[in-house]
Amino acid sequence: MTTWVADPEGGRDRGPRAVARAWLEVLLRPRQFFAHGVAPGDQAPGLVFAVVVALGYTVGLFAFVPARIPDLAGGPAVSAFVALAAVALVVAPATLHLTAALQTVLLILVVEDRAGVSETVQVIAYAAAPCVVAGVPIPAVRAGCALYGAALLVVGLRVVHGTSAARATLAGAIPAMLLFGTVFGGIDAGEAILLALGLI
């Protein structure tokens, strides 16, 4: 689950510029990105990408809502640093791989001829690209990030696993709800919007 291919054919470059370029490409040209930027066994750039997104999301939460900083030790600054370290080293990698494990099981049930687990990990990592700004406490922004991330997940599954849009949607519905709806707050944001509109 943590293989780093030295010279992956068609995989991603390394480094901060490569992460920024991947972020722009997956947001603006997702089909092309998933077709050419995901390589078997090349999970490390995807993992780094997911960690960067998770850190951006968490920094946003802490910056806009300081009450979200856990009370650990040494005051808010130290607590925030420890929490960010935990997100980078434990929470983000674990969430990525647990979501990928669930997604793989669902793909087995829905898609007969599919790509491997490594490619699934990368699809989920890059689909989270919009959520780097989901920490902004504006329901419309958070809901938009969640919906965009879910759409990117479906596009990535369709392209990488060579399946139909319907099968990709069916396979990706539960992971999308868990990751983008629960972890990144899309469901709560949607409820807040509906409440503000008087629809619930």
UniProtKB/TrEMBL annotation:
<keyword id="KW-0472">Membrane</keyword>
<feature type="transmembrane region" description="Helical">
    <location>
        <begin position="47"/>
        <end position="66"/>
    </location>
</feature>
<feature type="transmembrane region" description="Helical">
    <location>
        <begin position="123"/>
        <end position="156"/>
    </location>
</feature>
<protein>
    <submittedName>
        <fullName>YIP1 family protein</fullName>
    </submittedName>
</protein>
<dbReference type="InterPro" id="IPR006977">
    <property type="entry name" value="Yip1_dom"/>
</dbReference>
<keyword id="KW-0812">Transmembrane</keyword>
<dbReference type="GO" id="GO:0016020">
    <property type="term" value="C:membrane"/>
</dbReference>
<dbReference type="Pfam" id="PF04893">
    <property type="entry name" value="Yip1"/>
</dbReference>
<keyword id="KW-1133">Transmembrane helix</keyword>
<feature type="transmembrane region" description="Helical">
    <location>
        <begin position="168"/>
        <end position="187"/>
    </location>
</feature>
<feature type="domain" description="Yip1">
    <location>
        <begin position="25"/>
        <end position="182"/>
    </location>
</feature>
<feature type="transmembrane region" description="Helical">
    <location>
        <begin position="78"/>
        <end position="111"/>
    </location>
</feature>
